[in-house]
Prior knowledge:
The structure is a single chain. By secondary structure, the protein is α+β, with helices and mostly antiparallel strands. The chain is built from 3 helices and 7 strands; from the N terminus they run H-E-E-E-E-E-E-E-H-H. A 3-stranded antiparallel beta sheet has the order 3-2-5. Strand 2 (26-32) and strand 3 (35-36) form a beta hairpin.
Amino acid sequence: xxxxxxxxxxxxxxxCRGIKVVREYERAVIYRLGRLLPGGAKGPGLFFIIPGLDNxxxxxxxxxxxxxxxxxxxxxxxxxxxxxGVVFYHVHExxxxxxxxxxxxxxxxx
Length: 110
């Protein structure tokens, strides 16, 4: 009888921990026991995970920019020129960005 009372008291907390919200510009890649769930990334909106069995990673789909450090180069006519740049990128496939690369943002900046 005591276990039933404890279960009834803890069940709403368990359910609340499983409800997740993903914003319009994000997607959630969900793993159940370390395996990717079929159906691809979830979102935007409300979804449910099973606490303790499911893990998820949120992926930002917005365009990200960063500067490339200035580098000095030497042209054919022996003139030194300093060159820098800006890189713009965005994630097109969230499941591929999470599964194929350990850290997609860091690998793009290298």
